[in-house]
Design goal:
The complex is a heterodimer. By secondary structure, chain A is α+β, with helices and mostly antiparallel strands. Chain A is 68% helix and 8% strand. The two termini of chain A are 17 Å apart. In chain B, the strands form 4 sheets. In chain B, strands 6-7-8-3-9-10 form a 6-stranded mixed beta sheet, with helices on both faces. Chain B has a 5-stranded antiparallel beta sheet with strand order 13-12-11-14-20, with no helix packed on it. Chain B has 2 domains: 232 residues, P-loop containing nucleotide triphosphate hydrolases (Rossmann fold, 3-Layer(aba) Sandwich); 120 residues, Beta Barrel (OB fold (Dihydrolipoamide Acetyltransferase, E2P)). Helix content of chain B is 24%, strand content 35%. Classes of the chains: A alpha+beta, B alpha+beta.
């Protein structure tokens, strides 16, 4: 059972970069991959950074040729009257009148940041009119142009910290992520521990409950919490209370449920790979269940638990859907970035918000990649025992159950709410059974678009990711670490940032993609290649390099070896990547909400939109259809996997 | 138990473990004397580890009783038992140092710090790891890890020490060295040990008593010599070494010897304990090393206990040469321990096989 956990275990086929340059095919593939990664991951993130340090002002410049001969006259006849006219113009920040040469004068006007471009042109013309009137006699020729002046400055950052309504979002997001992560980590650990060591009959159901939220769109629990604990939700109606979950409690509960499966999956995996061997040894030495938990199990699984916590933190701080629906008047980074972008057209501030979204994520990512990576206690050897696993005693079991059972009930209740909401006219106001919420042509159209969208992304990401993993693991290429790091960035950087970044990067020629369906697909694919990359890498680590050497030795070219030998062996990674990308694509919200174009509405976004408009019944109904489509597609894939005998892990 | 014998440390009565789809240990009974080393040996999956885990308390038996030092511990939890186990992969705690590993059991029992420290030092010395107490366990070699595991198990002065294939992760030389050391330690400290292995040579060399298991059943219990020389059936005979089997019939019984007729010739065999009568069909078990070899021309007067054959192939191992001989259609293996003396026979050479009269018989 011992797994190689270092790169050095399997030697690379080529351990010399010179060999890389001798293979033109490899150079070509690698170059294309690197260019794409740069273009679709690094460049958009860079664009966000650049924007955050930019302040752009609408400007109008007017150039006159005049007929005044002497400088003194010039001051009196030209500049003074112009200045007098300029000062009352609304929105004018800065003005200057410069004598370029004896015959021309340049009047430069810089307007406020939010000065509307279209309105601005008219304003400018109106502003110029009195000037022209004043200096008319001296003018030979007028040229004016409307443009933007881009200034590199930290002004937007200063603005951010100067106003509490900006920086409070940052503070709130950090608090939210820390609280949610802590809650999720503890619950996930309990759930995993009881699921593996608790009463045998409870193990299966607990696992089901832990994974249940995985199939739902990420904000569905906010939706059900609104139905359950909103202003006119079940709780306030039933008990006639002035009670609602909007704000902190709602967001925290919704996040805790939304991201529980991820924490649970990772921690369960850690506990499972830890095995019971160490615990058996400790039991044999006389340790009680309590001793074992705190002296053996937790210390040993701590690196793995921290890894899970980091990932949950990344998702929690970047979460878009839950704060959007249930945050009430508490502000968070991701949603505010969207509001400043779409609502106020304050691109710079949105970019600054994005930077503050990137920073914690990058920090966590760096901790994960450079401190925690490879730090795990893999327990070696040990034959698996015959169907017998350690069971814990009540002293530990009951306190854990006291947490696990209520959590399970809330999760189940949330799913129940969605069904109740979908099949009643207006829950708690008119509880008549109805199917009318399902009759939503727009919703169904959005569902179909979602399937197209998710399938397209799922076709690109795994292939690209797996090819990349092969290059990174088996070949010695120049700037390997840079390429690896860049490709992982797409996953580490929050979706909101990637959404903003794509607009900034691709809204002007040479690559103008904004407003197309393609930009949404590319965005989704490149944000998810790292998952396929990881799947491919772990698979490749399990395959002895000698198999490829054998193919090369038999006379196959490098390309043939990859397509005929390697690809079939790692096909399960392809399929896993496909399933993952598809599922994530079906419920995507945070990045695509920026990139959405008319006619290309996606189901998850549509649900979010109707829920925001208060049409909760319809939101529930479309959610159910969405879950059904996801499950149906997963079932179909499982059949394919069984038919082709590909194992999916 | 009133009739409890003080010299018996462990008594197993009708112990059975059934899993969902199989019976891993089936109605096993035996007892272990104080200060003895007993080995459970058998092919993998025979139930020996499950049996060991039941004694340690890590697996709960379905039926039967486990009595340790006169006390019924069948349903006592593992952490309350006076047994200590050395795991196959040592199960050293990777987040602790060598000393912390060894002191774990004492620390759990809330012994004073200086006492733990003293005891750990003593144990380190006992297993010859002085000065390595502050190392991380991953920094140790396989043999050193083995010693740490042993020291950790000894720290609690268990009434019985359980070793679960402790040497299987070591390379051949180290394995031999470690088993000698374990044996020495056992004699020095007068330990009662149960040792699990699938390696018959290891089992033979280390044990006072062997328990040969197959399919959850105890096949035979006895000293290594008993098991080797008087195996109870073909399985045991085969498991503890190579054998040649000759089927035949008892044709004559005299005062000391009997005549056993095989299709290759008659064998005169010393009478064994069990009752035989003329006409019984039996199998004669002959170990490869108890057959002598002589060239065909060699004039040996007696015609009994001599078979003829032709060398089919041979394998030169150095200390021994193993011949594969075709004795009138039957393949016979023969080990010659001093090949230089006789000279090496080549393929196709006709030879005489000289069978000794101490031959073990099994019912056919």
């Amino acid at each position: 059972m011992s797994m190689p956990h270092s790169d050095g275990y399997f030697t690379k086929i080529a351990d010399d970069t010179r060999q890389f340059f001798r293979s033109p095919g490899l150079v070509a593939v690698t170059t294309v991959a690197a260019v794409l990664i740069f273009l679709f991951i690094v460049f958009p993130i860079g664009s966000v950074l650049q924007k955050s340090f930019t302040v752009s002002y609408p400007t109008v410049s007017i150039r006159y040729r005049h007929n005044i001969a002497t400088p003194g006259d010039f001051e009196k006849k030209l500049i003074h009257p112009v200045m007098a006219v300029l000062s009352p113009i609304p929105g004018l920040v800065k003005s200057s009148v410069v004598r370029e040469n004896p015959q021309t004068v340049l009047i430069f006007l810089r307007f406020e940041k939010f000065w509307d471009d279209l309105k601005g042109l008219n304003d400018a013309k109106r502003a110029i009119r009195p000037i022209q009137a004043t200096i008319e006699p001296h003018i030979e020729e007028v040229k004016y142009k409307l443009s933007k002046e881009r200034i590199y400055s930290t002004e937007t950052y200063k603005d951010f910290f100067a106003n509490s309504y900006y920086w409070h979002s940052l503070r709130n997001s950090i608090i939210l992520a820390v609280v949610s992560t802590t809650i999720i980590t503890v619950i996930a650990f309990f759930l995993a521990y009881v699921g593996l060591r608790g009463p045998r009959r409870a193990r299966g159901p607990l696992r089901m409950i832990g994974l249940l939220p995985l199939v739902a769109p990420p904000f569905i629990f906010s939706l059900s919490l609104i139905l359950l604990g909103g202003r006119s939700g079940i709780i306030s109606k039933l008990f006639d209370l002035d009670f609602n979950l909007y704000g902190w409690p709602g967001v925290i509960i919704a996040q805790a449920i939304t991201f529980l499966p991820l924490g649970y999956l990772m921690i369960e995996n850690v506990l499972r790979s830890l095995g019971t061997n160490m615990e058996d040894a400790a039991t044999d030495m006389g340790a009680t269940d309590y001793d074992i938990l705190f002296k053996i199990t937790i210390p040993l699984s701590l690196p793995g638990i921290l890894k899970a916590a980091l990932l949950v933190f990344l998702l929690a701080i970047a979460d878009f859907g839950n704060p959007m629906l249930i945050s009430g008047n508490v502000h968070f980074l991701a949603t505010d970035a969207y509001l400043y972008w779409v609502g106020e057209n304050n691109l710079e501030m949105a970019a600054v918000f994005c930077v503050f979204l990137i920073l914690p994520s990058m920090l966590m990512f760096i901790i994960h990649e450079f401190i925690l990576k490879g730090k795990s206690y893999t327990t070696i050897g040990g034959k698996p025992q015959q169907g017998e696993e350690r069971s814990i005693s009540g002293k530990i079991l009951y306190p854990m159950l006291a947490v696990v059972i209520p959590v399970s009930m809330v999760i189940i209740a949330c799913f129940g709410m969605i069904f109740l909401g979908a099949f009643t006219k207006i829950l708690m106001i008119n509880n008549t059974f109805t199917l009318e919420h399902f009759n939503s042509p727009n919703g169904i159209r959005a569902l179909i678009t979602s399937v197209k969208f998710a399938l397209s992304a799922a076709c690109i990401a795994p292939l690209f990711g797996v090819i990349l993993s092969y290059i990174l693991i088996r070949k010695q290429i120049p700037f390997k670490r840079v390429l690896e790091f860049s490709s992982l960035l797409g996953f580490a950087v929050p979706g909101t940032v990637m959404g903003v970044g794509y607009i900034l990067a691709f809204n002007t020629p040479p690559i103008k993609l904004t407003g197309t369906f393609l930009i949404m697909i590319i965005n989704e694919a490149f944000r998810n290649i790292s998952v396929s990359l990881e799947a491919g890498s772990s698979k490749l680590h399990q395959i002895d390099v000698a198999i490829e050497e054998a193919a090369l030795d038999m006379g196959a070219s490098a390309m043939k070896t990859f397509f005929k030998v390697v690809l079939p062996l790692i096909s399960s990674a392809l399929l896993a990547g496909f399933i993952y990308t598809f599922m994530v694509g079906m419920i995507a919200v945070s990045a695509v909400i920026f990139l959405i174009s008319p006619g290309n509405d996606l189901a998850a976004l549509y649900i979010l939109a109707v829920a925001e408009q208060g049409m909760l019944g319809m939101a529930c109904a479309i959610s159910i259809m969405l879950i059904a489509v996801v499950l149906l597609c997963l079932g179909a894939l499982k059949l394919v996997a069984r038919y082709t005998r590909t194992e999916v892990y | 138990m009133a009739d409890h014998d003080r010299s018996t440390v462990l008594e197993i009565q009708n112990l059975t473990k059934r899993f969902a789809r199989m019976t891993a240990v089936d109605n096993v009974s035996f007892s272990l004397e104080n200060g003895k080393l007993m080995t459970f040996v058998g092919p993998s999956g025979c139930g020996k580890t499950t049996l060991l885990r039941m004694i340690s308390g890590l697996t709960e038996p379905t039926e039967g009783k486990i009595i340790l030092d006169g006390e019924d511990i069948t349903f006592l939890r593992a952490n309350a038992r006076d047994t200590a186990m050395v795991f196959q992969n040592y199960a050293l705690f990777p987040h602790m140092t060598v000393s912390q590993n060894i002191g774990f059991g004492l620390q759990i029992r809330k012994k004073p710090k200086d006492e733990v420290k003293r005891e750990v030092e003593r144990l380190l010395e006992l297993v010859q790891l002085q000065g390595l107490g502050d190392r991380k366990t991953q920094q140790l070699s396989g043999g050193q890890q083995q010693r740490v595991a042993l020291a950790r198990a000894l720290s609690l002065h268990p009434k019985i020490l359980l070793l679960d294939e402790p040497l299987s992760n070591l390379d051949a030389n180290l394995r031999v060295m470690m088993r000698e050391e374990i044996r020495k330690l056992q004699e020095q400290l007068h330990l009662s040990i149960i040792f699990v292995t699938h390696d018959q040579e290891e089992a033979m060399s280390i044990s006072d008593i062997l328990v040969v298991m197959d399919n959850g059943i105890v096949k035979q219990i006895g000293s290594p010599t008993e098991i080797y020389e008087r195996p109870i059936d073909e399985f045991v005979a085969n498991f503890v070494g190579h054998i040649n089997l000759f089927e035949g019939e008892v044709t004559d019984i005299s005062e000391e010897k009997m005549t056993f007729r095989t299709k290759h010739g008659d064998l005169k065999i010393k009478l064994s304990e069990f009752d035989l009568s003329v006409g019984d069909r039996l199998k004669a078990v002959v170990r490869p090393e108890s057959i002598g070899i002589a060239s065909y021309e060699n004039a040996i007067n007696s015609s009994t206990n001599i078979f003829k054959g032709i060398i089919e192939s041979y394998m030169y191992i150095g200390s021994v040469i193993r011949y594969t001989i075709n004795a009138e259609g039957k393949t016979v293996y023969l080990d010659e321990s001093d090949p230089q003396y006789m000279g090496i026979f080549k393929e196709g050479d006709p030879v005489k096989l000289i069978l000794k009269d101490r031959i073990h018989l099994l019912p056919a």
